[in-house]
Amino acid sequence: MSRFLALAPLLVVLFAAGCGGDVPASGEEVDVSGKVPAPAGKSIAGYNLFFQATGGKAQQVHFTLPADGTFSGKMVSGTYTYYLTPGKGSATEQALEAFPEAYRKGSLDRQIEVKGGPLELKF
């Protein structure tokens, strides 16, 4: 028993060092990437993809989308919902209205936890 007690501080340090790994703390800036799947027959070029903070230390951010719908950049780790808005060079508001409602409005039913790396967006 005394041998265990003598090793206990070392075990605590080793355990603590192994915890957390590459998982960022909420509020840490991380690199992200992803792709917005365009609805059939719709162009997504020039639209803004907004990430609205819903939890943690997340902060609102947006990306302007190219024709292929890809994006990459920095975000603060946390919980977000996401949606599209017309941007400079995009189609008009009426064209956005032709997108399914899920693309146009954020929803607490559709949230994503941002921890860095590729984001899988589902509309």
Give a structural overview.
With 123 residues, the protein is an alpha+beta fold. It has a single domain (23-119), classed as Sandwich (Immunoglobulin-like), CATH 2.60.40.10. Helix content is 21%, strand content 33%. It has 3 helices and 7 strands. The strands form 2 sheets. A 4-stranded antiparallel sheet has the order 3-2-5-6. Mean pLDDT is 77; it is low at 1-21.
Please give a quick description of this structure.
With 123 residues, the chain is α+β, with helices and mostly antiparallel strands.
How is the secondary structure organized here?
Blueprint (H helix, E strand, L loop, with lengths): L1 H17 L10 E7 L12 E8 L5 E4 L5 E7 L1 E8 L7 H5 L3 H4 L7 E3 L2 E3 L4
Parallel strand pairs: 1-7
Antiparallel strand pairs: 1-4, 2-3, 2-5, 5-6
